[in-house]
């Protein structure tokens, strides 16, 4: 029996076609030839080719599809970033390259380590430390207190806390099946979520809470306790709606942003206008007016994609995230140990929830909470943590592949 | 591990549903609300598009040019008073109002042209041209109405109740589209505000049409006759008729003709708040009007908790609110055998290549009352003009029906004032016209609004509508 890993190079070819044509278009946009646009396009394609081919040959069992989808999403993001502001696009590109390093490190660590055992306790402390750091020292940007300044950089510690948080959750939920030993860990995650609420970082709080609940359910299968968790979460959400005026404003704006179209509702209204202007096929690259939307390069980038590429590409982006989730789920289902299974599942769940919360918020399906769109939004911390999450997923995929190969070899087969 | 696999599959299934819901919501929202979002005032995109495209011409139904492009400039009807009378319907070139200039931007700026036409335009190296549109309004009728209204603030809407076409919609004060940027502050936004579609006013006695419809639909709850002494007490609070006039022995018909508050207050309590609300919602209250051709704000009916609140809500006070356009639609429903038509504003759109992109078609919107009950209501409304509160709306040789309204409100200075209302129709197959007149703070509806209605009816019939 010979098992051949399918290559995804053909998809990569189309991505390169997209990137090159988009950047050639952008290079002529002001009537003058912009060499940097072409350089950026060529540079990005070179990095993609190197990344894909080197990873593929070093780690034979790497999951090509997850990697390709991530490259595709990043490419769409990069094009939009360049269109909005070439300088942020360059920074984003550098973050992506640093992200690749994070990816490889995460991959290697996961490949080598079995479980992290006692280290998990240190991870717990690390998570709490990072979150407290942002509560105590952070500057307020866009209503949420989640940025701290280190030299010339602003860093979002909650983005890095995510990684540790998922690892510890996977560890504790795979180790214990009964409720009582889990109580301390659940309390700990409650405290983490509470700290995020205090920092007014509601998006992250919701993300952590939902990820904990889904991982808890996946690991322990306790449906009633999970429902209870949802109950507590909804109760907490309702209480914060009653207690905090800024939460009330969010909900009011969601119900009818048009009554405050010049004030609190401005951002969401501008986003909706942008999506509506794009209609099915979009205004065309560089032909819309996305700069009118506040935070167009971070939280509201989905609206820009819809404006310039049309909702058809908007839907395609959602569909690609969906493919990413399904691929992640397959890797989780194929994992050999429960820890790895929950680890991959946790990373997938975190990314998909993040994607849901922000896109549904931008299109006014749910109240808006500002978080980044994975792989697309501008942001160094976000990019690095997303790439590290991808690295964890790939690490487990490689582990699975090696086990598969062993099994196939033992019955006389071969994996190419 | 097998159990965990099952759980993971389940959660992934939930995620797939969430993402699918997101896709469906996006498609739904864009197809239902997309155009409304796009034409919102202060959309910078419409302005930027104008740099590349020469906008088409806007005509009225008689072929008069209301707005057109001359080189880089946008021109509007030269006649100052006509210009003002159609200003809210035509809109402005800067996207500050929601008139045709913004709402029909997709035609005027040529998004609807086919690819071939766009391509020939590009190949000829010309600036692209947008399509021309014809509106259902008549500029002559609008101008006549504005002159009748004079300096009184308010709105008049004239519709064809069989087709739903808006023949005129005048909001006074109007504005000059060339100077639209100079209207600033509170008075400025009051001028730019289209009272006919977006002004929400207490309906006052107009609402008795809805209350009467509720009685006709629930005949067992009809208050037979009642001796009106000019006032009545409900829960130790007083409801009075206008000027505390004692109407004597009244039944539904006579109470309607004389606009007797005490009768309708008692009748509303007898019907109860829930039935009133059901009837009001059949007529389109509390309903998000998603009309194809215009943005109209929602009319409001709140079910009162106490009898006195219910009584006031049944005579169009309490928290009831209605737009002039919706009021005209209610009059039209009575005249049109109980069928409410969707108001229409766009008659046709023709591309620069002379192909027709759109022609008007009528749409039934709702059917709030049966034909039999609509005819009873129609006779009641004809009586109002013949011998009731609405005699001021009489036009010789025409069968005019209507209902007056005098809606109390408290202005910003805390002074008690009254809006004058009149809604009505001509009961004639050849002139299927209905209208609503609202004069802000003018006083009694019969005295002030009904004569304006008479002049509008006469002018409309003279023009052949």
3D structure, described in words:
The complex is a heterodimer of chains A (416) and B (465). With 416 residues, chain A is mainly α. Chain A has one domain. Helices cover 73% and strands 4% of the residues of chain A. Chain A has 15 helices and 5 strands. In chain A, the strands form 2 sheets. Chain A has a 3-stranded antiparallel β-sheet with strand order 2-3-4, with helices on one face. Chain A has a two-stranded parallel sheet with strand order 1-5. In chain A, strand 3 (144-150) and strand 4 form a beta hairpin. In chain A, 51% of the residues are buried. The mean pLDDT of chain A is 87. Chain B has 465 residues and is an alpha+beta fold. Chain B has a domain at 204-344 and 369-462: DD-peptidase/beta-lactamase superfamily (Beta-lactamase), CATH 3.40.710. Chain B is built from 18 helices and 19 strands. Chain B has helices spanning 2-38, 44-50, 80-85, 87-90, 100-103, 105-108, 115-123, 139-149, 185-192, 195-198, 208-217, 252-258, 261-271, 273-282, 307-314, 324-335, 371-387, 445-462, and strands at residues 53-54, 58-59, 65-70, 73-76, 128-129, 132-135, 154-160, 166-172, 226-228, 231-234, 237-240, 248-250, 340-341, 346-350, 356-359, 364-366, 400-410, 416-426, 433-439. Chain B has a 6-stranded mixed β-sheet with strand order 4-3-2-6-14-15, with no helix packed on it. A 5-stranded antiparallel β-sheet of chain B has the order 8-7-19-18-17, with helices on both faces. In chain B, helix 8 runs antiparallel to helix 18 (445-462) and helix 12 (252-258) packs across helix 17. Classes of the chains: A mainly alpha (416), B alpha+beta (465). The interface between A and B is large, with 45 and 34 residues.
